[in-house]
Amino acid sequence: MTGQPTAFEAHECENGHLTYPAHTRCPECGEPQTGTVDLSDREGEVLTWTTVSASPTGVREPNTLAVVEFAVDDRTVRAIGSTTQDVDVGDTVRPVYVEQLRDPDASFRATDRQSWDGYRFGPIE
Amino acid sequence: MDVAVIGAAMTPFGQRSAWLDDLLATATVDCLADAGISTETVDHLYVSNMASGEFEGTTGVMNALAADIGVTPAYTQRVGQTSASGGAGLYAAWQSIASGASEMTLLVGGEKMTHRSTGDSSDIIASLTHPVEYSHGVTLPSFAGLTARRYLDRFDVPRESLAEVAVKNHGNALDNPDAQFHKEIDTEDVLSSPVVADPLRLYDYCPVTDGSAALLFCPVPVAEEYTDEFVRLSGVAGASDTHVVHEREEPTWMGAVAESGKQAFEMADCEPADIDIAELHDMVTLLEPLQLEALGFADRGKGWQWAPEGRTAPSGELPVNTSGGLKARGHPLGATGVAQAVEIYRQLLGEAGQRQVSAERGLTCNVGGFGNCVTTAILEADR
Q: What is the ipTM of this complex?
């Protein structure tokens, strides 16, 4: 909540393991994560998706969500996110920045607890 | 120290006018009466509850209950593990007896939810998700939709097979007077109900529920002083999986279910083929076959076949959710893991009325989050 757009980055430990989001210790080897890989300019593949027709207050409805896998060198890292339009399994998508993903004032979670901007997944143009 | 269960009770599940304190008090008093135990013998009191503060603005429910039912100065503790709080309570109760710290432990689980709108309830429950999930409006039902699509695609699963789980569990609940729903449904009802998280629909999901359930634990030698018929808690184990669901290597594999089951089977010195009856965490129809697979009852990718083939019916080789399960008995979050064990207790002692099956050993599996925290328990008849 600094006014800067929230980064869309995978986090990397010294053994080259990637995670999204960041962790205090790498879940695979227990080492600290020291590097980042920007995912915002990469293309990914839709692994699965759903369209939610019963959203909590302050969340758009319907809300299509997808799990997308990004290739980074010979590794992969996944992210979940809402989409800008309908998607299908196997589609190639790219991150699209959105200033407000849901209405923080209508959410149960404290508004200063986390950021509310981020990246949806949209089609390759 | 071998651990016995000597009493069980639950309130009717559904939309209740009572608040949590009354629901908990009713179940605990009924449980003590079921066992014929007076309040002054209770050493420990555990209260399994996910979110009383969030749902009704009430905290400290364990102390309030201890004082209200007259078990003070018993040690008391609230056990929170989201929707697996009840299962975690079984573990806490077992620890208290097995360690020798308590000779009489009362466990009660409860939740009061229906006074909130479905959207608010969904958001309270979704508050367990990681910020990168929560910011996109991810809910627990949406995890199920994402995972169901992958399961159906990967294992070439007919969509109707998941509907069969709901049909079975609604049928079972017809014979459970404490169940939330007493309504027979068919697969067409499920497949024509409103979409919640594509490809899953309203009748794939459990309802929002109020209710409470309780169990009474003591060492086996103490149980033998009180009764000729009791149940042994012969195995209980918990495990965790990733907090962020997309970090799991294969989302259709419930790793914490597998790990907790493996440990519970080892502790009870038995295997899946030795289990006569199970209560599984069918928050959504999909989870019943996924737990059958992770616990080792069904082969990988084949769990969906069990409901359509009648193998999990009351007359099948492994009756699953004779109570109606979360789907039709209802799912008052903190109560569910306890209610699962109440059902197994009653089945093992021949107290299950119209839904009675023949069983000597039963299993419960209580899932928190979308497989984030899981407790599996194995109970055996001693009569």
A: 0.97
